[in-house]
UniProtKB/TrEMBL annotation:
It comes from Gorilla gorilla gorilla. One of its GO terms (biological process) is fatty acid transport. Coiled coil: none annotated. One of its GO terms (molecular function) is fatty acid binding. It holds the Pfam family Lipocalin. This is Lipocalin/cytosolic fatty-acid binding domain-containing protein.
Length: 90
């Protein structure tokens, strides 16, 4: 059932203040932070993480930035990187 959930991601930015709200029929989560600064986030499974995440001896870094009106999210873990780009809904 969880695999069938297709959440909506609502991203707002007021200057350097970023808020990301994820809504689905199963759960809604939201976190806010300031671009360029570390901040805490509560994940969908209620685990509290810092954006430079460390757990079980593993580290992950998530960088969020605005580029050409889009939110670019880069994650790096164990020398593997991925990028996700969010476009503003019309």
């Amino acid at each position: 059932m969880g695999a069938m959930a297709k959440p909506d991601c609502i991203i707002t930015c007021d200057g350097k203040n970023l808020t990301i709200k994820t809504e689905s029929t199963l759960k809604t989560t939201q976190f806010s932070g300031t671009l360029g600064e570390k901040f805490e986030e509560t994940t969908a499974d209620d685990g509290a993480l810092v954006q430079h995440q460390e757990w079980d001896g593993k580290e992950s870094t998530i960088t969020r930035k605005l580029k050409d009106g889009k939110l670019v999210v880069e994650r790096v873990m164990n020398h593997v990187a991925c990028t996700r780009i969010y476009e503003k809904a019309q």
